[in-house]
Amino acid sequence: MPEMTYVGRSPEKEDALAKAVGDTVYGDDFRLPGELHGKVIRASAVPARIKKIDASKALALPGVHCVLTAKDIPGANAGRYPYYPVLADGEVRFAGDAVAILAAETHDLAEQAAQLVRIDYEPLPGLYEFENLEGEVLCDWKTDKGDLEAGFREADVVVENVYFAACVDHAFIEPEGGVGWVDERGVVNIRVPTQTIENFQQVAATLGLPSSRVRYDCPMLGGAFGGKEHPLLGAYLGLLAVKTHRPVRIAYTREESMDQCSKKHPFIMRYKTGATKEGKLTAVEVDIIADAGAYPSNSKGLVLGALCVSGGPYEIPSARGRARAVLTNNPFTEAMRGVGANQVCFAYESQMDEVAKRLGLDPLEFRRRNFIRKGKTLMQKQPVPTRVMLPELAEQAEKSIGRPAGASPGESGGPWRRGVGYIANIAGYGRPRNDGGAYMSIEADGSVNLRAGACDVGAGQTQAYRQIAAESLGVPLESVTVVMSDSHVTPLVGMTAGSRQTLISGGSTQRCGTELRERLFQGAAELLEAAPEDLDIVQGKIFVRGAEDRSVNITGAVKQCKSMGVALHATGEVKLGVHEFEGNEQYGDAGGWMDYVFGVHAAEVEVNIETGEIRLLHYVAGHDVGQAISPQLVEGQVEGGTMMGIGHGLTEEVQTEGGGIVNNEFHGYLIPTAMETPEWKDVIAESGEGIGPYGAKGIGEPPCTAGAAAVACAVSQAIGARITRIPITPDHLLEVMGKLKK
Question: Which of 70, 394, 411, 566 could form a disulfide with 89 if both were Cys (CB 3.0 to 4.6 A apart)?
């Protein structure tokens, strides 16, 4: 590929200074004159039947404008899913269910009024355990590859274990907050942090309005990770704004945010792994049970996604898998960074360490002997479509960490033991039938407007598309302005999730730029008396290849194009196809991703074998990203995502009692901070074979899938016993060492 001007480089982000000094306007920073304050009243008993709602005392307070319940919804009482109500009607299933909403003149008055709304409940029996399949089983996915029984007969070593991965919260720093208002045209405007502006359609249905009468305008997000996909906050704002004819603002506290937000599925995973004495895998059997919580949401697709990668990035001749999700009255679970790949990575990498131990092989060498290659098939028989750089990444990780996997005395002395763990991982990006578009126009002065529907969730989407636009069109970066995520202005592209938007929005942007570049060349060719195919453009200067003195600037070419009637606006689209591999028929379009990202991580820890304390000392995170659009943004994704995975492995766990969350704030729910961040090394490989623009792969989620597995393997190496649950609490660590009874 020829040298590029902006792709592969890290120019300063347009919003860098604003973010650094705190000037970025997030959802709860936007203010409108005359706004009211909204409040959501949630279930105080679950599961339960709603017998009566009495709002008379709240409505008697001066300054309280309305209290709305399910009966006040003019349209469909359905959020993102038809079975998930905007306001509970007749029954509440989990503590995050909203029963009523109100609007008042001040925040304190809204809080006071909420306390005066009396709701009578009739308790119902609840289900909180999922391992025994007591609740409704939503799905029962199965995979079958090769001859499993023969595979285990060929094995010289067979290892069986049961693993548990706890429920975790998205823990974004910005709680949900936003404003809704009805403008002078009668259009309902919703300005909330969201991962999908398509939510305007569900909100319109709730309000009983045509979709064109609702506008979603998404500001910059302070993190999301799958937790800001739902339209419920927008629906509450819309209902209250339409009812009161005033702007309404709602801002959740941390406790409210955690109580109502979806969670990552807790998994019980049973693994059986066989290998020969030469260190080759022969068979893997997997059984996954997931807690879907109170609503089905999209658990079916998520547990299937986990099953598809549950064999890891390894060549397995024979495999059998099963994955089920069960309804309970716990917080509902849905998409969270990694969508199931995190939990199974912890399990299959623990198995790889255990099999290597039984065979007397170095754990990293055992992995090397089994790395999957391009064209070989995964658990569900899908061939890996692009290059796999696992050997190169493993070499770099081993070189960077400087120690083989295993244990050694801790440098702190006393009861401290040191351990090094290496893991490999696989994560997908780009689902079948995904599609989306972008719109680009060139102005008379040669400046460029790009409209992209993706939401900037803090990962630098705006900057990435700006670089792609400048590169594909051949103009200076500073001449490109990007408008993001406004449902009345930008094309629809689906949610910003699943590591998909570099592929979809970035690819659409590249197509816009390529098309407009060709149109510019039509006008420039007339001025330069040359064939369009002989032209090139760099930094807005169009010239004849091999004769660069024959050139014209972009404004001259624009003027000529307009005189010729050549349109200088274009819509680019990316439309992904469907899977056609053998065996996919049973899964429909859901049986895997269009392409995969592979990584190798290494962690070095110190463990206190008397107290269970863990110190993370060194970490190496390596991935093939295809092509880094902006290396700095890639590093941010790798480091931030991996630390999120490390939190899953060491400290984070949603604890519930009777379906309610008991640690719904950051004093009880512990996320890693800068103090827990170890010495760090990123290894960024670029195969150039991704299916995104310029060969890029989606890198938002893959690093997160590896962190918990890496620290769990390192801790297991240090103590000489297998960690089988995450997070690794001191109690569990001491249990597996035989120092504490279960």
Answer: 70
